[in-house]
Amino acid sequence: MISTVVQGEKFKRSVTYDGRSLIINGKRELFFSGSIHYPRMPPEMWWDILKKAKAGGLNVIQTYVFWNIHEPEKGQFNFEGNYNLTKFIKMIGDLGMYATLRVGPFIEAEWNYGGFPFWLREVPNITFRSDNPPFKYHMKKFTKMIIDMMKDAQLYASQGGPIILSQVENEYNTIQLAFRELGTRYVHWAGTMAVRLNTGVPWVMCKQKDAPGPVINTCNGRNCGDTFTGPNKPSKPVLWTENWTARYRVFGDPPSRRSAENLAFSVARFFSKNGTLANYYMYYGGTNYGRLGSSFVTTRYYDEAPIDEYGMLREPKWGHLRDLHSALRLCKKALLSGKPSVENFGPNLEAHIYEQPKTKACVAFLSNNDSRTPATLTFRGSKYYLPQYSISILPDCKTVVYNTRMIVAQHSSRHYQKSKAANKDLRWEMFIEDIPTLNENLIKSASPLEQWSVTKDTTDYLWHTTSISLDGFHLPLRENILPVLRIASLGHMMHGFVNGHYIGSGHGTNIENSFVFQKPIILKPGINHISLLGVTIGLPDSGVYLERRYAGTRTVAIQGLNTGTLDVTYSEWGQKVGLDGEKFQVYTQEGSDRVKWNKTKGLGGPLTWYKTYFDAPEGNDPLAIEVATMSKGMVWVNGKSIGRYWVSFLSPTGKPSQSVYHIPRAFLKPKDNLLAIFEEIGGNIDGVQIVTVNRNTICSYIKESDPPRVNNRKREDSVIQKVFDDARRSATLMCPDNKKILRVEFASYGNPFGACGNYILGNCSAPSSKRIIKQVYHLSSLCT
Hints:
This protein has about 775 residues and is of the alpha+beta class. The chain is built from 14 helices and 42 strands.
């Protein structure tokens, strides 16, 4: 490995800007950027993911800085393992790419508490993200520490490092009005504070119309080429910090999709209208390990990105965007120094042109903005076919090298396969949590305590327990009439137990955290114990007054007694933080020896811990665990949490939002890997299985109207030329990860239809198609 980030005067870079673009060492550049977050994957995956990003045509990697993992306790810092920010930024430089560092320190990012550490909430008189002295003190202190750390490692471009941009705050405009003048003063203070840290590179604020002084205001959204009103000063360039490649998902959500065609259209549109930096959020999403996802957010994060959660290329999205970047690079000279103009050809048809008359450099973007109807337009004497809602790129104002709707990149389909080695002779054992009662040594109170103020976000779980004494005349006399336990909760979830028996569960949603829990219960004369396990699924990550958000039990009443409704809210209550299994760390080898385990199989009940051992799966494919037969809980492998699962919360499609969970191979040993599961509600442990993941089904679908692949074009003296004489359209396949073709499952020269892995013959197909393709791949020793 040869590092391009070298300490020394000659490798230092100046980074400036004007109204056209960023300027590095006096030269303008087009920037294709992707968000990749270092804590959302183990460090063993960093190099491979970054290499694939570069191969996809990116030259910038964007990441947030995550305050709550770096300073989980006030004054106690952690920059080890997958929290090693300096190592990650250096690796970006080692690959010859630039970096954007989004310091925040508020980041949102569907990350627990938007990146804020919980201890910040307990600072006296604090109000987050406002002109509030306690908040500004701690924000500045952390920001300065990160900047100094980057400077000490020589990681800013002004020192020869890869960082060319930094960001302070994050989408502050969405809450600024709530603080009125305090908000205006705060955002100007934040920008000024950042600039005074003297990084030697520009600062940005996303979605911040009043970004102060030299701070560049940038766009976030799906279509910034049309929605961005532009920088707040003509001396600032047009930058796009978040182009959402799909949408993050919360538990209960249906699948999220954004097509490669739609994404490519948005990027081409942006560059055709003066944009010079576009960032994909996310380019690789990764995994919310442990308890690090925000409220209700799934463990899998932006799996629909160009690189999926397992680190495999999501085709055709990855390849179609790679081809787009290549096409735009052919346009660089005219785009960055040409004179812009627009020609209209009727409703929804237009051309955006950049031209240098003296050098004959010319670029045209021919746009059909109609979402339903294709069109043909005549541009400078030639006819051009434009599919609906598409843009054709002409780097010489003559030759179409790319159309956003015409995909010539290959496709792939993802599959899960049960591992023989990992699932061989699984022997499950279980340990069941005790249900606490008021008699135990608990935190006593006159009513149920607010959950986060007690747990300090050290666990998802808080027990509330009380007891009531009833005489026979309180209870209904008929067996078919039962009292009802009614609980109003601020969220997120609750499991109820009466006299040690499970009575049911209830939960809110991401949109409405609060819910009412109502279940019939069986009571007895004498002392009755009510035990409620309050559950949270991450802290909120957005909105105003985050320091004033609350969760947990609000009111408790028993309805249907002979004497009427009994309100037990203001009785004596006891609270217990967390679970015994968490306290003993039974998900580790050492901790598992602290409790007694019993053999088990099949269906199990609530609050049950399971453990078994498995060997590493065969091969080198990524792996995952399928938990479709369980309900809700968490999974650990060799003591490392791979995140929360919740398969009993079904989406409107009738399916769970996520039932398969990534296990990084970096977490494994060759043999005897400890797998631990905590199940909150109950499930069938025999249905849990380890699977390997592959994209071994690859496809190519080419139409006669598609252009040749853009990598067969080059620019010489403002003229677009063929790299090869035989620049024809071609259906091209390349195997992932140096694999080989095993068989041809489908081939058709005609009018097939369907999707990769599920193609069907149309009513016209050459009978010899499959035979010819088989001959081609038998003659090739490479998977191409």
